[in-house]
Amino acid sequence: MKMRAVLAASTAMLVCAAGLAACSNDDGGGGDEGEGVTLTFWHNASTGAGKQFWDDTVADFMAENPDVTVKVQSIQNEDLDGKLQTALNSGDAPDVFLQRGGGKMAAMVRAGQLLDLTDLVTDETKGLIPEGSFKANQIEGKTYAMPIAVLPGGIWYSKDLFAAAGITQTPATIEDLDAAVEALKSTGVAPIALGAKDAWPAAHWYYFFALRACSPDTLEATAESMTFDDPCWVEAAENLEALAATEPFNEGFLTTSAQQGAGSSAGLLANHQAAMELMGAWNPGVIGSLTPDEKPLPDLDWFAFPEVPGGEGEPGSILGGVDGYSCSAKAPKQECADFLNFIAKTDVQEAYYKAFNAPPVNTEAQAVITEPYLQSVLEAYNAAPYVSQWLDTVYGQNVGNALNVAVVDLLAGKSDAAGLVESVNAAAAKA
């Protein structure tokens, strides 16, 4: 991949540097190993094919490892971070759990809550997963999560609704997007679906405007200083304000959820009530679960976030990185590592792709991808000159949550561009 940096990794290193002693984990975790070992496992696929994938994968792993029992708990995505943080802080964390990365992972490592997997990843696994994907889950060269999926963001859209509005080319610039919004309005559908009730989907728009307005150097410096004083942060908020002024979103977007039910933003796209949604590469699977026949949307396609003139970001830069799974510091070391190496296998990764309709990280499994939109996602990701993790992940839970809320306040008319940045700076000062 031609990228100058993966911001998730660099941010994590910077956050961790001040507490290096706490970041180490010499004993590799606690728990009894050997016969009769039990692992607890938390993931965020609470319904449909994704939940079934994990149930089947766990059953297959236990069949190959009869002395290991894996107890699975599926948790709604929006609830997972809070429950996980509570469990980690109480010393009762699950043995295996979804890892967001960035500043969130760095905080866990600094607190001594994660198992160092560096010497536990097998040579076979290393041969199947690109080094860059591991870097997104590393701090100072040590691996703290097993990569499982490549999930960059962009705009998902209905080809049929675009055609009905007379749109023949996907928007390449923000001016093109504005024109598409006006064309779609004339057909009676919502141009852009947005589930702002959950905050983070609304914030995705600000993240991408920041990626276009701010240089990579500025993004990295902000990750180190945690001060949002460069003018590009206000510029990004002003660009979001300008988009919002065109009224592109679905009616009631402030009270619309992102992924739960036919009335969610993903559901609006799934049922042709909205034409576009900005979301990560997990979205096809979510959309497919919400269509009337619960099958993939036949006219779904994808394009990269439009370029915004005047900014200092590198054209083609992309947000969203690599999802992974971590072991807690107290997990049974070898059994937990065996499970993570198991989910990286080619046949398991192929099953992951089929269940989630999302790009797996295993390069052999990527060869079976047939959907043009997923091929486009991988092409854009691999060609990107700069890749950043989602900004709320980069800046950690407290600052990230404040950022997401500030974006919703701006879209609700409760704040302005300067106020958004002031709110995030205030949260950073308390972190």
Automatic annotation (TrEMBL):
Listed InterPro entries: Bact_solute-bd_prot1, SBP
Keyword Ubl conjugation among record annotations: no
N-terminal signal peptide: 1-21
Source domain of life: Bacteria
UniProt cross-references to Pfam families, sorted A to Z: SBP_bac_1 (PF01547)
Gene3D superfamilies in the record: Periplasmic binding protein-like II (3.40.190.10)
Presence of keyword Signal: yes
Keywords for the protein's UniProt record, in alphabetical order: Signal
Protein name in UniProt: Extracellular solute-binding protein family 1
